[in-house]
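Chain A, query sequence.
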Amino acid sequence: MSIKLSIESLEVIDAISRKGSFAAAAESLFRVPSALTYTVRKLEEDLGLSLFDRSGHRAILTKAGEELIKEGRPLLEAVQVLESRVKRVATGIETDITIAISDLFSNTAILQALADFYLQDFGTRVKITREVFGGSWDALITGRADISMGAPGDIPSGGGYATKLIGNLDFVFAVAPQHPLASLKEPLNSQNIIQYRAVAVADSSRNLPPRTAGILTGQDVLTVHNMESKLEAQIMGLGVGYVPKHLALRYAKAGKLIIKTVAESRNIAPTYIAWRNNADKTSGKAQQWLLKRLEQISLEALMPIE
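Chain A, predicted structure.
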């Protein structure tokens, strides 16, 4: 079955409909009226119907013509978008960029950076995803993301990406006021902690080995899907564990958590902005601009607002 419609014929019919005459449409398309007349008549013959009522001075669409252009205009717009995107690729501008954000961070500062990015009119589509712990690296290595905000140390081996340190996250050990560890003498040691359930956030890695931190060998674990759920579980006294200091202080001030000193604690965790940087994925103009803007964001600005 041959295709009777073409983008050219849709452009012609659209122009005639908008301009009201074959002559005006021909001028707008930089063509002669006879060429448009031929295109329309050929299409009408192929379809076996009339697209224009030519009884008056103006070219008026028939019901069939109205339906054709109603459904055809979105196709013309899609083709124009496609042409534009292809041209951008040819000039070194990405069509899509995916940013993976750590579940510890707020979106606000990143969205502000995107507001500036859109003013540059690159025409690049941006997708934001959430990753947990080592999933921030996994997203880069597997190609799920082009940029990762909040990728934690240690940096995986193998290369294929570049990094810049955003800052160091402080973690503290926190328990609910009603939890047995809340009244225990400090500093807490491993023998004290291992008796009670830990709350952990599931690493979102799909290919890299999942990471864990702050969990003792043999300790019971409640695993949840994000930091918000971890905090909720610890506030309810379902378990204990390390949480970012800025969050712990907030809930401690509200009387919902108690920060405890631990003899063998993990206090500092470096966090990076990282991006794919290998032979088959060279950063284009849009990503280069966006990276420079994202690198200006401080660790404090990425922290959730109270």
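The chain has a mean pLDDT of 87. The CA atoms of residues 2 and 186 lie 82 Å apart.
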